[in-house]
Amino acid sequence: xxxxxxxxxxxxxxxxxxxxxxxxxxxxxxxxxxxxxxxxxxxxxxxxxxxxxxxxxxxxxxxxxxxxxxxxxxxxxxxxxxxxxxxxxxxxxxxxxxxxxxxxxxxxxxxxxxxxxxxxxxxxxxxxxxxxxxxxxxxxxxxxxxxxxxxxxxxxxxxxxxxxxxxxxxxxxxxxxxxxxxxxxxxxxxxxxxxxxxxxxxxxxxxxxxxxxxxxxxxxxxxxxxxxxxxxxxxxxxxxxxxxxxxxxxxxxxxxxxxxxxxxxxxxxxxxxxxxxxxxxxxxxxxxxxxxxxxxxx
Length: 298
What we know:
Elements: E1 2-8, E2 12-18, E3 24-31, H1 36-54, E4 58-64, E5 67-68, E6 75-76, H2 88-96, E7 100-104, H3 105-116, E8 124-130, E9 134-140, E10 143-144, H4 181-185, H5 187-196, H6 204-212, H7 216-240, E11 244-248, H8 256-264, E12 278-280, H9 287-293
Parallel strand pairs: 1-4, 4-7, 8-11, 11-12
Antiparallel strand pairs: 1-2, 2-3, 5-6, 8-9, 9-10
Helix pairs in contact: 1-2, 3-9, 6-7, 7-8
């Protein structure tokens, strides 16, 4: 079976085709048209190109920066705003004469790592993407867990747990609430906190490098970051106790996270015991598009 996965982002559309063994046999990236009909046309043209090139008909899965509402059947919450309010899966299915599966891109990340990535073989996988923003997805037995409202895994838009006095009511989030996890532990939040303390850096990776070089402000900022990350993930462990947590996004490339986080998690997990593995992703920026291909299962 040929599986096509598409990552529909705000600036680019990326397509991969996987064979039965998960081997990549085709890849292409194009700019995203910033208009709905043009986006649908571009997706149809990409699928047609790969199928004609490989002389096979494929299943199609798409990851989007939003969700399909289970109540209206329309895209919502996408930062690619021109697809909001449209039945993207239905429109594409009609053009391609087959069913198209669509899932949130963070859920696709979790599926990718659960099927044949860093969490292969694990039943319950929590995948957290920590980059410019902060999102998460849940995969159970290699399949997306959407939830009844279609928002399973919206971890970043809960308040930072066990908030301290100097943290309360200090940040605002684009979602309309204050003190969301995303505003503290995203790469953007990490940099914001470091700058507020007098540091100068443009990314979390840069702060980590400064910490390794002995910079005291960077060390203090990382200590705050890792404690906040531990609190945020402890909430997940207390609620769903996943078999493994996989980290993605730019911040996941900070190696110190994987040595320091296990020291902090037991401070917040019920019973003060925690051996939940927290691991770095296997496929990097390709996890989402591969996960879209695996929406049809293995």
